[in-house]
Amino acid sequence: MESMDRTALITFEQVSYHIDHAGTPRIALRNIDLSVYRGEWLAVAGTNGSGKSTLAKIAAGLYSPTGGNLKRSIGREPAVQLIFQNPETALIGETPYEDVCLGLANFGVSNEDIPSRALDALRQVGLAQLAHAPAASLSGGQKQLLAIAGCLAAEPAVYIFDEATSMLDPQAREGIIHIARRLHREGATILWITQLLDELVWADRVAALEEGRLRFTGTSRAFFYEIGDDGMSCCEQLGFAPPYTIQAVRQLVKHGYRPEPLPLTPEQLGKAVSAL
Ligand SMILES: Nc1ncnc2c1ncn2[C@@H]1O[C@H](COP(=O)(O)OP(=O)(O)OP(=O)(O)O)[C@@H](O)[C@H]1O
Asked: Partner of 28 at 20 to 30 A CA spacing, among 58, 73, 134, 209?
């Protein structure tokens, strides 16, 4: 975190998004000030309807703010790739290989480079063996891996995962997180939209939304462990139950043992307890 590059690639300046829903005005986002810095993993959390997807779509350029400004300082294409909740929406080819190739052709990659880039991307997500299988035969998790392969083949500056694991089983979820962590270690910038709180532990920074307002930005440790005057963490104030690991650490602290740094993952908790 300390060594993080402070170059802002995407900046929300007082961004609002108002919707006219069948004559009834709705406000999806209200005066959001937020930057996504190069090389960081920024997670955006919030309950249903808090504005996360709207924020993702504005960051991706699919929606324009109805108030304020969105600034992008990326300078190359594709600037951003969005991985959706439902991978079906992104599938265009009959096979994984064809799917990634069609995507690359869309980005204007030369015919000469397409096959090697497509195969390399499929290899990176573990789908090389299924490159020529019917896309319809893939599991939900494999389809999501394919969507990611299509994105990483395009080499975007920023990856936006919009609740990309929410329709997957735990094992497939692990696979997606594993790939995102590798991309991040290799320098990718990640905007990770989620309401699954145990996914926040991989983020450098967490931004939390409530009813379209930005309620918190800070580390996941602060989100889970900093207690407000009302005796609750920001996580609880937003109506979420803290993940099991965090609850277990809170119990340890209550009983007089405060591991430092406070564990976020089961592995960190295991180490802290074994050091007792
Ligand atoms: N096209 C639309 N028409 C009407 N209302 C909309 C539209 N898009 C978003 N909204 C409203 O804006 C608010 C924010 O929606 P958004 O999808 O961004 O929230 P979210 O945090 O991503 O929710 P979820 O986790 O359920 O996907 C909600 O009240 C939603 O009903």
From this structure: 73
